[in-house]
Amino acid sequence: MKKFSIVIAGGGSTFTPGIVLMLLDHLDKFPIRKLKLYDNDPERQEIIAGACKIILKEQAPDVEFVATSDPERAFTDVDFVMAHIRVGKYAMRELDEKIPLKYGVLGQETCGPGGIAYGMRSIGGVLEILDYMEQYSPNAWMLNYSNPAAIVAEATRRLRPNSKILNICDMPIGIETRMAKILGLSSRKEMEVRYFGLNHFGWWTEIRNKEGKDLMPQLKEYVAKNGYAVEGEEAEDSWNDTFLKARDVYAVDPTTLPNTYLKYYLFPDYVVKHSNPDYTRANEVIDGREKFVFSECRKVIKNQSTQGCALHIDEHASYIVDLARAIAYNTKERMLLIVENKGAISNFDPTAMVEIPCLVGNNGPEPLMVGKIPQFQKGLMEQQVSVEKLVVEAWIAQSYQKLWQALTLSKTVPSAKVAKDILDELIEANKEYWPELH
Ligand SMILES: NC(=O)c1ccc[n+]([C@@H]2O[C@H](COP(=O)([O-])OP(=O)(O)OC[C@H]3O[C@@H](n4cnc5c(N)ncnc54)[C@H](O)[C@@H]3O)[C@@H](O)[C@H]2O)c1
Ligand SMILES: O=P(O)(O)OC[C@H]1O[C@H](O[C@H]2[C@H](O)[C@@H](O)[C@@H](O)O[C@@H]2CO)[C@H](O)[C@@H](O)[C@@H]1O
Ligand SMILES: [Mn+2]
Question: Where is this site: Increases basicity of active site Tyr (predicted)?
Fold first, then answer.
C-alpha cells in the first residue's frame, strides 16, 4: 500500500497537535511515510513541533518527521499540503474584531469587516503556499481550510484557476455532528444531506437516512426550540450562544436548516449588543485554546514524554483524512466543498464559489446539481458573493474604491460612511499585510 508524504502549512497552529494525533489514529486508512510541519514563524512552530516529534516517536517511529521554515525542504516530495495558516495571527484577529465594534459594527473572524480584513491578509499567504507546492511538488494537492475560506477560494479561482486546491470548512461537519446527536444516530455519516450556499453562509434543504427517510421534520422541531444546542456538547459561552441562536435564524426561513454563521448577517444588532468591545473571541481563544495547547506542548517537551498530557485526538478533523483518501483512492465520497458554481445552482452566478455537495475522486470534486434556489437565499447570497468578489478585485487591483464598496455592500455595515471609517482604520492596522491601496 502506498504511503503518503504530508506537509502541514501553518505548523504552529493551535490545531496542529490535534490533527497530528488524528492522522496517527487513522494510519490504517491513510498510511503516512513522512510528516512535515511548515510555518513562517519558526519560534511559534518550534513548540508545537517539539511536542509532535515526541508524539511521533512514541506512536509512529517509522514516520519521518520534519519541522522547517524553509519552503524548499517543506514542499519537496509531498503528496498533500494541509493548509491552516492565519496571516497576522491572533494579534490581527483581535484588531479585526475590535475595530468594527468601535463603530457599532460586529467584529468577527470571517464575517463583515473583520472577515474582509482577514481576507486581504490571507490571499497572499495562501497563494504563496500554493506556489511553493507547485514549484516543489507539482503533482500534490492542497487541502485548504485557512480562512476566510470564501475569499481565499475566490482568489485562487481568479488567480490560480488550474491549481489543485480544495477548499473545505468544518462548520457544516460540526453542525451535522450535532444533528446526528439530536436524531440519536451514531454518526453524521448515517445522514445524506442536500445543502447549498457560500462558505459560512448556507442552508440544508434535505436530510435523509441511508434508507431515504426524511429526517428534516424531527430536526426542525428540535431546532425551533433549541437551535443546535445539544446536551453534553457544551462549549465556550460564545459558541453555546451561537448554537442556541440558530433557533432564531431558523425562524426566518423554516423551510431549511441554517448554518450558524448566518446569525452575523440576520441578527447583527443582537451580535453587537452581546459583544464586549474589550474582550472578543480572539481574547477567549488566546486565553483558552492557545494557552492550553502551548502549555501542554511545553510540558511534553520538558518531560520528553506525552504521559499525563491532555492533548487529544481532533476526531472532528477526520474529514481531512476523508478528503485526502477521496483523492488518493478515488473513493467518490460525498462531501461539502467550496467550488465554482458552473451552473450547479442554476439561478446563480456561474462564477461564484459556492459550498455544495460534491463527489470527490482522484480528479478532484464533481459538484452535484442543486437546481433553482429560493428568492430569499438568492438575494442574500448575491449580496454576500459580491462582497467576496469585490475584496478579491480590490486585492488584485490594489483598489481603495473596490474595498470601500465591499465593506459598504456587507449586510453587517449600515452605511458607506461607517464603511469608510472602518476601512481607514483597518488600512492603518494592516499596513504590514495588505497591498498598498490607491
Ligand atoms: N475552514 C475551517 O473550517 C477552519 C476551522 C478551524 C480553523 N480554521 C482556520 O485555520 C487557521 C489556523 O487557526 P488557528 O486558530 O490555529 O491559528 P494559529 O494562529 O494558531 O495558527 C496559524 C499559524 O499560521 C502561521 N502562518 C501565518 N502566515 C503564514 C504563512 N504565510 N506561511 C506559513 N505559516 C503562516 C502562523 O505563524 C501560525 O503559527 C485559521 O485560518 C483558521 O481560521 C479553519
Ligand atoms: O473561534 P474559533 O477560533 O474557536 O473558531 C473559529 C472556527 O469556527 C468553525 O470551526 C469550528 C467548528 O465548526 C466547531 O464545531 C468546533 O469544533 O470548533 C471548530 C474550530 O474552532 C469554522 O468552521 C472555522 O472556519 C472557524 O475558523
Ligand atoms: Mn469554516
Answer: 109
> Could you report the per-residue pLDDT of 125-178, keeping only the tens digit for each?
999 999 999 999 999 999 999 999 999 999 999 999 999 999 999 999 999 999
200 is in an annotated binding site: yes
Distance 419 CA to ligand 3 centre (A): 24
Q: State the alpha helices, DSSP H only, in 290-415.
A: 291-303, 319-329, 375-397, 400-409
Give the Cα-Cα-Cα angle 334, 335, 339 (nearest 5 degrees). Answer: 115
First-to-last alpha carbon distance for the chain, in angstroms, is 54
ipTM above 0.95, yes or no: yes
What's the pTM?
Answer: 0.98
Counting ligand 2 atoms within 8 A of each CB, the residue from 86, 170, 240 with the most, and so the one to mutate, is 170
Q: Is the dihedral of CA 75, 78, 81, 85 positive or negative?
A: negative
Q: Which atom of ligand 1 is nearest to the CA of 10?
A: 24
Q: Is 147 marked as binding a ligand?
A: yes
